[in-house]
Amino acid sequence: MNVNDSEKVAGLLRAAGHEPASDALGADFIFINTCAVREKAASKLDHSLRRLRRLKDRRPELRIGVGGCVAQLEGEAILKRAGHVDFLVGTHNLRRVPELLEKADGSSAAVDLDRRADAFDVPENAAARFSAVRAYVTVMEGCNQVCSFCVVPRTRGPEVNRPPSDITTEVSGLVGRGYAEIMLLGQTVNAYRYGSLDFAGLLARVHEIPGLQRLRFTTSHPAHVTERLADALRDLPRLCPYLHLPVQSGSDRVLASMRRGYGRQEYLDIVAMLRGRVPSLALSSDVIVGHPGETEADFEATLSLLEAVGFDGLFAFMYSPRPGTSAFRLRDDVPAAEKRRRLALVNELQQRRQRGLHASRVGMREPVLVDTLDGEGRLSGRTPEFRIVHFDGPPYLVGRTVEVAVMSAGPNALVGRLETAAQPVH
N or C: which end of the chain has fewer CB within 10 A? Predict the structure, then answer.
């Protein structure tokens, strides 16, 4: 979501006559788009602003803008500790960035954090896409969940669903411009509903757009995984067999404290239902260790759930208190050293799992959508299950799907040999 927001800001600035600078030292304007989900991400803002203060002292004409979730959450408190910031813009006000930049004269900071603004006000063709292969399309903004650790409902607001006609129009335009893969975005994307149209119905509509090669979506919440969604993953051939489904903990007690809205067995039942429909489904997840009150037994329950599910990928984090969340009122009673130990154990377990999973792919042939030119003669791309594959090949293959024989594997990627390839288009 943040990458997509940054694409929108870059595109709006280009439309207003600005061009990207080669580096920060030569820029006239620097915009920092922020994330507030974890303390570490939020602290990066202060670090960046301290560095930029020195740059602005040397070049007073430099303009600095701050946007995104930290700007929405902290507001003018940012200006009190960083008076060299020229404007703040919230999560719903990105369209105003060029206007605020135009008005910035160095005398006083402008602030627009109105969360009532239309988050979908940015024109569909405005984004400066950072990839020539994969395009992000926002289908909803905000979140109605009440997870105790999460600040997103405060920064993004309640769920707002975009009209399906706007979504399909944007996707059609992107496919027409040559984008091979579309990823639908939302804080809780599978909660999408517009009138009688649910998320599975939206997937079916997007799937039928002529020329679309691959379709993905993220991020999903277990509470909104339905049999219709499982059927869509089974029945729509261009919908990739990959699902990111955050579990956060394997302990019922911790899940209740987190206000996740499901228990351990319910999550396992959802996974069983999904894999019953799509046996090859690749699952990834999020896990938080060291949530307030998490005992060693709770942590062991998380490890056992990871073993039981066997995730294809995992994003694991140490709990960090976030102002404005209900968990912020709880005592952060798991010592930092213990959080680090638990995080290391989770990552070790997952690396073993991925190493074995990837080793089982050696000798197989994979359809790889080439998305990156890593260097001269070196390419990488993704399988339908979102596995990374590195291989040698000509640069004109970027954006094409090729067959790659897997020759070796590590825990984080596959290495292969190009088997079939389309010829260059003249």
Answer: C
Backbone angles phi, psi at 119, to 5 degrees: -70, -15
Give the CB-side neighbour count of residue 420, counting CA atoms within 13 A: 7
CATH for the 2-112 domain, from 3.40.50.12160, 3.40.630.30, 3.40.50.2300, 3.30.70.141: 3.40.50.12160
CA atoms within 13 A on the CB side of 161: 17
Amino acid occupying residue 404: V
Q: What is the pTM of this model?
A: 0.94
Q: What is the mean pLDDT of the chain?
A: 95
Nearest one of 87, 84, 92, 99 to 12, comparing CA atoms: 99
Percent of the chain with pLDDT over 90: 89
**Digit-coded pLDDT (tens) for 299-351:** 999 999 999 999 999 999 999 999 889 999 999 999 999 999 999 999 999 99
Predicted pLDDT of residue 139: 97
Q: Per the structure block, which two tokens stand in for 228?
A: 């219709």
The C-alpha angle with vertex 301 and arms to 295 and 306, in degrees rounded to 5, equals 135
Dump the DSSP string for 348-363. Answer: HHHHHHHHHHHHTTTT
